[in-house]
Amino acid sequence: MGALTPLADRIAVVERYRDIIKRDGDALARLISVETGKPFWETKTEAAAVAGKIDISIRAYHDRTGEKETATGATRGILRHKPHGVMAVLGPYNFPAHLANGHIIPALIAGNTVVFKPSEMTPGPGAFIVERMMEAGVPAGVVNMVQGARETGQALTAADVDGVLFTGGAKTGLAIHKQFADRMDIILALELGGNNPLIWWDTDDVDAAAFAVVQSAFLTSGQRCTCARRLILPEGAAGDKAVDALVKLTDRLIIGAPFDDPQPFMGPVITPKIAEGLERAFDQLLDQDGEAIRNLSVREEGSAFVTPGIVDVTRNPAVPDEEHFGPLLKIWRVKNFDDAIARANATKFGLSAGILTDDTSKWEKFLALSRAGIVNWNRQTTGASGAAPFGGIGASGNHNPSAYYAADYCAYPVASMEGEALLPMADGQVGMK
């Protein structure tokens, strides 16, 4: 199923895989819930996204890469795309099936082979999708899975591969980037995190805006790389009103196990160790002159369940620019809208950003001046379409966005000039006797 396999045959295999995932969607969703703790309603959407990625990836291959005629006549111009070869895929724990699948399927359509290492914290969903690929007819050796922790990932990236496709934290992404600094032959696609800003300015429907903030900050227990980490508000009464609405809605969130009835809004974070780290991070913000609006705390010792934390950090402009991967939201209050944009851009990251406002001119100004790969208006920062590119700038990526643009990093362009017969030398050829 590599470069010598016709494209139509490669597509037929991934379409069979799509149908198998649809058949086994509930089983996949249950497994994701068991390993991540995410609510079952949410993991069902992930299973659906795994299947939905197939048609989107096929369309993206033809649109972004594929084969195109660039000139006609005695000399034809043809643009084709070739696979890189062996692609190492390193998957994350927060969407253990969907995000890895989003690298693997475009790679297979392009004609690559894959070595896939799931996160050691969520090994099951990775094994599940690879088994279904085999059932669909992916030949042995085309998709290879290795399980393991950090050492396994390091061994994989040090192996004889042609590309590394990574979704995860900025620290690990930077280490991979440095590892291949002298390897121009390696294609890297690094999909990293963000210290994402959300501006809330001039909205009549305060409750709807508060709901957008909650979805932005606390969905998936804050374990989405697009989650809002910094909420930027105006000083004074408008900001106070916004905080009051946000607190009231946050207090209504149900936190529970994946299969609870009623279903929870959010489950635990991935491990008790991560939960403890988030609690320490919240306490450190308080030590740095932050004001607790809602305490982030571990429910009980040894638990991975945490309550959503909200802290006002306005009094300390030197708060470190870092991503806390969990339900921890920092609030900044600023004097005017220009200051709000400046505060939003005051980060080395650049994945997602958003604004909640009824004022179209403010949206247009924010869109023009913001620095992020995903910029939303009156929608949650965690809202992204698979039919669009997904990635960021700065410390959030390396200018190889995923999702619809994954086709770009899974194949390289080859331009050809072609003719069925050689062209004879013209009479009176310049430079000839």
Write the SSE topology.
Blueprint: H1 7-23, H2 25-36, H3 40-64, E1 68-71, E2 76-83, E3 86-90, H4 98-110, E4 113-117, H5 123-136, E5 143-145, H6 150-157, E6 163-167, H7 170-179, E7 187-191, E8 196-200, H8 206-218, E9 228-234, H9 237-250, H10 272-287, E10 291-294, E11 309-312, E12 328-334, H11 337-344, E13 352-356, H12 360-369, E14 374-377, E15 389-390, E16 402-403, H13 406-410, E17 411-418
Parallel strand pairs: 3-4, 3-6, 4-5, 6-7, 8-9, 8-13, 9-12, 11-12, 13-14
Antiparallel strand pairs: 1-2, 2-17, 10-11, 15-16
Helix pairs in contact: 1-3, 1-4, 1-5, 2-3, 2-5, 3-4, 8-9
Written account of the structure:
This protein is α/β, with parallel strands linked by helices and 433 residues long. It has two domains: 7-192 and 397-418, 3-Layer(aba) Sandwich (Aldehyde Dehydrogenase, Chain A, domain 1); 196-377, Aldehyde Dehydrogenase, Chain A, domain 2. It contains 13 helices and 17 strands. It has helices at residues 7-23, 25-36, 40-64, 98-110, 123-136, 150-157, 170-179, 206-218, 237-250, 272-287, 337-344, 360-369, 406-410, and strands at residues 68-71, 76-83, 86-90, 113-117, 143-145, 163-167, 187-191, 196-200, 228-234, 291-294, 309-312, 328-334, 352-356, 374-377, 389-390, 402-403, 411-418. The strands form four sheets. A seven-stranded mixed β-sheet has the order 10-11-12-9-8-13-14, sandwiched between helices. Helix 5 (123-136) links the parallel strand 4 (113-117) and strand 5 (143-145). Helix 2 (25-36) crosses helix 3 (40-64), helix 2 (25-36) runs antiparallel to helix 5 and helix 8 (206-218) packs across helix 9 (237-250). It is globular and about 85 Å long.
